[in-house]
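#data-curation
PF: Archiving a pair of folding outputs for the training set. Convention for this channel: one message per protein, sequence first, structure tokens after, nothing in between. First:
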Amino acid sequence: MNRLAQLDDSKRRIGGFALLSIGTVAVAIGILWAHYALFPKTEFVGGVEIDVVVDTFLGNIPRHWASVTLGQLVAVTGSQMVVVAVLLLGVIGKPMTWARAGFTAFVTWFQFVLYFGIIPSEWLNLSQGPLSWTAQKEFFSLPDSLSFLLLNNDVAISFAAVKDVVSMTYNMVVLGAAILFAIKVQDFGKSEPKAVSEPKLSPYGRPLMKGSR
């Protein structure tokens, strides 16, 4: 992380504007892609099922949950590029003021909302919606030949349990990463401590002064 702080102003500006441009385009493409991928393939009009036609070239976007997820991932990746770009251009390498501290706190809040709110919510929408990972769908069951291990009881794990395990694992990993980042960021921008050489000693065991022989 200290490498970012050690970049000179020109490299910081070039990298910041490049990330800002690419990230903004990625966010726009991802949002449009996910939006049009959510259009239904058909709809009922007067009791008759007809195809839903989009008159623009965006109508060629596949209408499938995998396509929606792809658009969302592109948008999230672009948003992170924008966040890094904004920090490079307006925070990193500059003296910290109350305005910059408040802005950095807002960016941090946005990141927490994204990682602990929006992404878990979209995962639940996907798993409970298109994937239909419900308690009624069985993911794994213990074979009858091994049922004696559990006193001949039937043991089955539903897709709903798998969904919850994925959600819990994600939150634990992201929380751990956030704590680690918070610890590492305390040393951001600090210079490495200079190694202190041991003083030379005279034959009598006393430190030699500069200029002495």
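PF: Second:
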Amino acid sequence: MIKNFSSSEYAAVFAEMADILSVPPDEFLSSWVAAFDQRATGGFPTTEDAIRDLSLKLNPWVTDARIKEATQIRLDYTKRSFIPRNGAIEVLSYLREAEYKVGLISDCTCEIPNVWDSTPFAPLFDVTIFSCVARIKKPDPRIYLLATEQLGVESQDCLYIGDGSSRELTGALQVGMHPVLVRNPEEDRNDVYRTNFEGDNWPGPVISSLKEVLGLLKQ
């Protein structure tokens, strides 16, 4: 749906935040990444709470004003990162017009639902399942079944499209969905930020563009 993050840009943003918070940038970034599961399952109600918790462990004297400033940098980065994959808006719009039910399952932290309504994606989905709200993440079967329940469909009738992060394809397969890996060769570079990526060894169907989803629906 959106393009993968750049690891170098991600690190640069956190270096800027670390400078404001007067904490070691490498330690701050590594602690942020290490806390992903906690952040992605609702462990921190807000981005500011997460930054406060992690930065105070590295600098007990950091001020609330600095924490708020770092929080804004993080939120601004999140908004900038909502770059649609090629064809994403067109494909989603077609699916809506064709009256397919469309759902989103996202392993994400609280920044995403906070900015979601301001993105072009918001009106194109019938159901959105954010892990930080559901408090479960992929590949836990419950998050897929929560989506099918809210959509009012059976899992075996679902086509699941994903880039292979978070072992999401295996999770979808385990509940009876039909998972397809979308892998754009342009994104296969060392700078792409991924977690628990299974795309290199995925034995199932693979597409290189979201536009190919429309062909899959006709099979």
